[in-house]
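A quick word before the example. In earlier lectures we treated sequence and structure as two separate objects. From today on, think of them as two lines of the same record. Here is Ciliary neurotrophic factor written that way.
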Amino acid sequence: MTFLFLPFTVCISSHSLPKAVLLHCKAVQMSLSPLKGEGAVTCLSHCDRASSFLRSSVSVPVSQTGNWLNKGVELLVCDLLLTLRTSLWQRCGSSNGEPGPAHGAQLAGFQRDLSALRRLTQCYRQAQHKVFLHETTVRLMAGASPTRTHQLLEHNLRRRAHNSYSAGEETTHALLLACRPLPMPLLTPPGHRARLLAEAKRTLERVGDRRSLQDCQQILLRLSGGTTIAAS
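And the structure line, produced from the sequence above:
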């Protein structure tokens, strides 16, 4: 029953990384429930605290510790934090269901984690595609030009299609990101958005990501005016 004592062990640990992992897990646990009012604030607070401990860990160079495993865990936690922050932002949509610009604290937290990710990819060059995807996300969160954002996303998707390190699930999240916030006229020829979403839907079904699959299906329904679009 050692796991019962994990929080206490983590609290007295002199290392920041276990604390970042624990706080991220708490934030994820909270995110599984409907987030309103204080719940959303607390969830973001856990993210920010996890981020603070993570940056403290990242600041220790691998040349000082010689521990490459720690750097790998830091990379994983940083990517997961950014993914969670993206999900929280998307869930706080406007009246039409689409996420609007993030508020200042939310955007600042994302940018801090993105800076940590950039630093970590100096050790893991194969993770550069993660930086590109999250950089595109932060543009959307900041309310940047949708036209330029769409160009960046398409560039990212083309690179990932030829990148052996790119996982299908990550590409799917890029597809969802490309389809959600951009005006319909930007996606040509007609039906391009539907084909992207159908591809994303198939991948999400394969990897078992139920939440993103539900999100994808809702976008497809809005796009089709309530009529299901068959995957080609």
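Notice the following. The chain has eleven helices and no strands. We will return to this example when we discuss secondary structure assignment.
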